[in-house]
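Following up on my earlier message about magnesium ion. Here are the inputs again, as you asked, copied directly from the submission form:
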Amino acid sequence: MSLRPARLRLSDLARLGGYGLRSRPLRAVLSALGIAIGIAAMTAVVGISASSRADLDQELAQLGTNMLTVSPGNTMFGKQATLPDESVAMIKRIGPVQSATATGMLSDTYAYRNDRIPAAQSGGLSVLAAKLDLLKTVGGTLDHGAWLNAATDRYPAVVLGATAAERLGNVPAVYIGGRWWVVVGVLQNVLLAPELDSAVLMGWPAATTYLGFDGHPTTVYTRSVESRVEAVRAVLAPTANPSAPGAVQVSKPSDALAARRATNAAFDALLLGLGGVALLVGGIGVANTMVISVLERRSEIGLRRSQGATKGQVRTQFVAESLLLSLLGGAFGALLGYLVTGMYATTQKWPTVVPLWVLAGGVGATVVIGAIAGLYPAIRAARLSPTEALAAT
Amino acid sequence: MNPPETVANPLETVVNPPETVANPLETVANPLETVVTAPDTLVGHPVIELAGVTKTYPGGVTALRSVDLVVDYGELLAIVGPSGSGKSTMLNLVGTLDRPSQGTVRIDGHDVASLSDRQLSALRARRIGFVFQQFHLAPGRDALGNVADGLLYTGVGKREREQRAEAALVRVGLGERLTHRPYQLSGGERQRVAIARAVAGDPPLLLADEPTGNLDSVSGAGVMDLLRELNEAGTTILVITHDREIADSLPRQVPMRDGQVI
Ligand SMILES: Nc1ncnc2c1ncn2[C@@H]1O[C@H](COP(=O)(O)OP(=O)(O)O)[C@@H](O)[C@H]1O
Ligand SMILES: [Mg+2]
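Thanks, got it. Here's what our run produced:
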């Protein structure tokens, strides 16, 4: 007869781990909670940032990432500089540029909701002359009313940006330069050109006729073939103003949009760090529970040894229990993190995205924590001499 | 989990010289699957052999002094002596839970000194059953679960463990108490569950340390009757007791005092 210990089946091992936890359910739940909180925090942080990114990606896919804007920067004297009148036509001539349009700022011109407001209270709204193809190029949409057309752009008619409309209230006309201008439409927020939100937009000819507009563009908006955007970007400044290309600013609004969303990175790192601390504390909690469990269950250990359990089998039993405990916490934490992400994303009208690697990573982390936390107590359990263990009460 | 033994089977080469066909069980592949305690073939062979066994605990207490004892298969005997005389120490050595400081211990044909901890575990799993004064039942498991779990380390599947557990509980008269938890059982019934657990795997050797120590006299007598029945069915039983009366009710007594057999 060979004296080879029988192998403990995996199903029996899982059951053994379960008995230990079920005999003290409250303690199991409490010690798994630390790990659950840690995993939940990490899952939620990654999930929320992934959801935000998914939303941004959707938005950008809709808005396009091929828009570039050109503005003149400031002159040496701090005055609003302008671009040469022919800059729009020059830019249109660049091969991959699909469209180019402009706005021109009317300096020292303000819009008021009525004629009794003192001139000093301008309300921070800008008055811009706009080319008719502006709306299409920036991807703007109307909240109500109509965009300027070939008829309205030569008469005193304006379209209000979303913020401007909010500030001025629901007025039929605004007072600019000693004259009433009819409000023909109101825009929704323009994500790629947020400067239009606080603008009062009028036709290029009307601005010239009624307000003495000089016709110089102050911002040029372009759309290019997607794959050539960077090439276009390189030549935009010298094309727009060959005499002073260094004064010209070229920017890509979709990048700015992405950057604004990414500013929460530091906060994310903080939350991730807190999640890590919770995980560490959770792991210590599990180790502590296991140490106590081993102390309390010495007679059980002795009994199992008398029944033929090897040291290795005792060790495996306690590691299994610890693994089960932390997996319990990890699974609950991942679920919690998913729910938190879902709730937050819903309030933000974002799609809920929790990357699979986060869930897998969370479970992986708990397995590692469980194994480490359980190893020392398990080794202590296995080292107990059977007789001393049986003598313990 | 189970690395292969480094020494393939030390028993065959070292422990059992061919002159003694000491252990007829060696031919049986899985002892659990046969009636292990076939008295006809085993009676007259020793299951326990202690020779010059001394046990000194760390700290200097010598609990056993040069003890010699031979117990044959099929015996029912009492180790009897006052508290502190070394009875439990002897049971631990016989049960291979501990090793002697000096002398040799042979159990079921195996020299304990030549076996690794893993091999001793396997020996206990298949060949030795234990009954303790404190029962050592898991409070959260019913009678059936407690008994079935006793077979965890024998390599038998769950279904069969439960079948054997039920059979063992019926055998000790607790067929109606299968789903009772320990707190729902009397002391005598608890000890019966513990006995069922010890014999569910049909070990040839049953060791009982003060099995009636926590019981009233009626339950105690019931437990002793049960042990006698199990012995009649073939199991070798060694009972430790400080109670002369109980010892005298058994076929053989080994009196002890101050770590020595007298
Ligand atoms: N683990 C141990 N460490 C030190 N001394 C022990 C230990 N176990 C038992 N003893 C001592 O050995 C002697 C015999 O104890 P034991 O075998 O338990 O006797 P019994 O079972 O007959 O009451 C006692 O003096 C006891 O104090
Ligand atoms: Mg004792």
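One observation from looking it over: The two ends of chain B are 45 Å apart (CA to CA). Hope that helps, and feel free to reply on this thread.
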